[in-house]
UniProtKB/TrEMBL annotation:
Class of the enzyme per the UniProt entry, highest EC level: oxidoreductase
InterPro entries membership: DapB_C, DapB_N, DapB_N_CS, DHDPR_bac, NAD(P)-bd_dom_sf
The protein's name in its UniProt record: 4-hydroxy-tetrahydrodipicolinate reductase
PANTHER family: 4-HYDROXY-TETRAHYDRODIPICOLINATE REDUCTASE 1, CHLOROPLASTIC-RELATED, DIHYDRODIPICOLINATE REDUCTASE
Keyword terms, alphabetized: Amino-acid biosynthesis, Cytoplasm, Diaminopimelate biosynthesis, Lysine biosynthesis, NAD, NADP, Oxidoreductase
């Protein structure tokens, strides 16, 4: 039995993670964390997960041992909880978006002590998409322009999405492009003729869209579009749970969903 703690348990993702962990016979929920001052502190986690009484209270601290902690909170909270996980020898599955370079550097240091699996998108399908678009970009060559479109709900705080950025990184790795030089974010004004190696990323925020990502390969006379659409947040939850089961017994180090799915890096 793998024991699980969830940070950010009252959020849209956290509550669903708690619910699916409670319902999984291979897992046991032992910790439910929220920020200091949250109005749900002290309540039974079942009240927000739709499971009735579970005996597990929502707390601001990780006061018990868990094999794995799953985090879908904020960048600052994620880094704080990662440091606590290192002290408690608890593996970390981190799906929080909006992490910057300094955050990643801290996680890399922490991964020398505990296994850390970091992914801004835990969807299994999205990671297959990443592999497909990297292969397509390499096969199609410079005759095809590449654009990435991502659409999310109006409440998303960061743009472009971490998934869109990762898609661009995968394409750059496969084709010898450089993210700092060849990737742009939107266009306006007289932008001039499109450079050969350019990758455009465009962010749309609309209504309650869970998450859509499309990579467009366009040449003179033909176009290929590869799209992934998430219909429900449970898509990401199931991926995070799959990641938790994978990482529970792994040695310290940095892991990704590519390791979980055995996709060549």
């Amino acid at each position: 039995m793998i024991t699980i703690a969830v940070n950010g348990v009252c959020g849209r993702m956290g509550s669903r993670i708690a619910a699916l962990v409670i319902g999984d016979p291979e897992l046991k929920l032992v910790g439910a964390l929220e920020r200091i001052g949250h109005p749900s502190l002290g309540k039974d986690v079942g009240s927000i997960a739709g499971y009735g009484e579970t005996g597990i209270k929502i707390t601001p601290f990780l006061d018990t041992y868990a094999h794995v902690l799953i985090d879908f909170s904020s960048p600052e909270s994620a880094i704080n909880i990662a440091e606590i996980c290192a002290k408690k020898n608890t593996a970390l599955v981190l799906g929080t978006t909006g992490l910057n370079t300094q955050h990643y550097e801290k996680i890399h240091r922490i991964s020398q002590q505990i296994p850390c699996l970091v992914s801004p998108n835990m969807s299994v399908g999205v990671h297959v998409l990443s592999d497909l678009v990297a292969k397509a970009a390499k096969l199609l060559g410079n005759d095809f322009d590449i654009e990435i479109l991502e659409t999310h709900h109006r409440f998303k705080k960061d743009a472009p999405s971490g998934t869109a950025l990762r898609l661009a990184e995968k394409i750059c790795e496969a084709t010898g492009r450089e993210t700092g030089k060849d990737v742009i974010y939107g266009r306006h004004g007289i932008s001039g003729e499109r450079p050969v190696n350019q990758i455009g990323i465009h962010a749309i925020r609309s209504g309650d869209v869970i998450g859509d990502h499309t990579v467009v390969f366009g040449s003179l006379g033909e176009r290929i579009e590869i799209t992934h659409k998430a219909h429900t947040r449970d898509t990401f939850v199931r991926g995070a749970i799959r990641a938790a089961k994978f990482i529970a017994q792994k040695p310290p180090g940095m892991y990704s969903m590519s390791h979980v799915l055995q996709i060549p890096l």
